[in-house]
Amino acid sequence: MIRRLLIALLVVELLGVLAVAAGLRSLVPPAWPAPLAAAAALAGGVLVLLLVRMLIAANNFRISWRARSVPAPQFTLDVKQAARLFLHEFASTMVTSSWSMLRPLGLQLQVRARGVPVLLIHGYACNSGYWRPLSARLQAAGISHDGIDLEPPGADIDAYAPQVQAAVERLCAVTGSKRVIIVAHSMGGLVARAWLRRYGAQAVARVARVITLGTPHHGTVLADLGPGRNAGQMRCSSAWLAALNAFEIRSDVKLQRDLFCSIYSVHDNIVAPQNSSVLPGARNLAFGAIGHVALGRHPAIAGCVLAQIAAVEHSEIL
After folding, report:
1. Residue 277 and residue 300: Cα distance in Å, rounded?
2. Containing H/E element for 212?
3. Does any domain span residue 123?
4. In terms of residue numbers, what domain contains 183?
5. d(CA 53, CA 83)
6. How far apart (Å, rounded) are the C-alpha atoms in residues 85 and 79?
7. Is residue 51 part of a domain?
8. How far is Cα 149 from Cα 200, in angstroms, rounded to an integer?
9. 2 forms bridges with which residues in the sheet?
10. In which residue ranges of the chain is pLDDT below 70?
11. In 3D, which of 113, 109, 105, 102 has the Cα closest to residue 132?
12. pLDDT value, residue 1
C-alpha cells in the first residue's frame, strides 16, 4: 500500500511541477528559443518542488530542536556540520521516498550464506524498500535477509506482531536457522518489542538479537503530527508505551531487554527528545550528525549494525 501511495504522491508532485512550469513560462523572455524557455520553466518548477520538500524537512528539524535532549559536548555541531546534517537527511528522504521504497525488498537468500539470517522491519509510513542500502551491505557480507512490509500502514502496533511472527518462522524455515537477528528502524523497533510481548518465550527462542535504529522507545513529539493508531501510540505520553515498558521491567521478562541494541542519533529530526531512543537494560550506542531517515543508509550506522551482527555470529560459534 505504501508503494501505491508513494506513486500517487509522485504523480501529484509531477502535476505540481508542470503547473508551476506553465506559470513560469510566461515570465521567460520572448527572445529565448522555445526549447530553452521550456527547459528553464521546467527547472523552475522542479526547484519549487525541492524548496517545498526542503521546508518540510526544515520544519521537522525545528520541532525536534525545540524538544531536543541536550547532547554530550562531543556531539556539538558547528554551522558547517549542521548544514551537512540537514542536506544529507534531505537527500536521504528524497532518495528513499522517490526511489528506494518504490522497490520493496522481499527475501534475499545468499548462495553461500553465513551466520544468522536477518529480518528487517521498517518504520512508520515506510516499506521494506527503505532497507535497500543496508541490503546491499548484507549481500556483500553473504548474509541472507528478508524485508517485511507491515500492513496496513496506520494500524495498531500490536496488529503487526503476527506478521513478524510469520516472517520469522518463514526466514528460519528457508534458511534452516533456529534463530534470526532483527534490525528495525524507528517504529519497527516498537513492533519488535510488541512481538516479543505477545509471543513471549516462543519469540525469545527465535531471536538472537534485536538492533533498533532511531526507535522512539519512549515516544516522540512529532508523533502528534502523524495519522493512524500507531502514531498515537508513539506519543510521549501514550498509555500504550507506558504499558509496554511496565511489562518489560517485570522480573520474569526482564531478560528480553538484554537482547536489544539501540543505535540512535543525538541529532535525530523525527525522534525528539532524542534520548527517547535510550532503552534501559539494552546496549545503547549514540551517534551524532545523522538524521532519522539517514540512519538506514549512513556508512557509520551500517558498519555498526554489521559489527553487532558479527558479534552475534561469534557468540553462536562459541
Report:
1. 18
2. strand 207-213
3. yes
4. 101-317
5. 16
6. 10
7. no
8. 22
9. none
10. 251, 253-255, 314-318
11. 105
12. 82
pLDDT value of residue 160: 98
List all residues 6 or more positions away from 145 whose beta carbon is below 8 Å from its beta carbon. Answer: 108, 117, 118, 119, 120, 135, 138
| Residue range 124-158, pLDDT digits in tens | 999 999 999 999 999 999 999 999 999 999 999 99
How far is the C-alpha of 257 from the C-alpha of 312, rounded, in Å?
A: 16
* Confidence at residue 121, expressed as pLDDT on a 0 to 100 scale: 98
* Residues whose CB is less than 8 angstroms from the CB of residue 152 and which lie 6 or more positions away in sequence, other chains included: 1
- Residue 72, C-alpha cell as written in the block: 554530550
Per the structure, how many domains does the chain have? 1
pTM of the model: 0.94
Assign residue 219 a region: left if phi > 0, alpha if psi is -120 to 50, beta otherwise?
left
Give the Å distances, CA to CA, from 70 to 256, 266, 267, 290: 28, 8, 10, 15
Alpha carbons 132 and 147: distance in angstroms, whole number: 9
Apex 56 CA angle, 51 and 62, nearest 5: 120
Q: What's the burial of 180, exposed, middle or buried (CB within 10 Å: 0-12/13-18/19+)?
A: buried
**By the 8 A CB rule, do 175 and 109 touch?**
yes
The answer to whether residue 147 is domain-embedded is yes
Enumerate residues 6+ apart whose C-beta is below 8 A from 105: 120, 128, 129, 131, 132, 135, 146, 147
Q: Which three cell numbers stand for residue 238?
A: 501514550
H/E/C letters for each residue in 231-272?
HHHCCCCCHHHHHHHHHHCCCCCHHHHHHEEEEEECCCCCCC
CATH code at position 235:
3.40.50.1820
Residues in the chain: 318
Inter-residue contact 21 to 116 (CB < 8 Å): no
Q: Is residue 55 part of a domain?
A: no
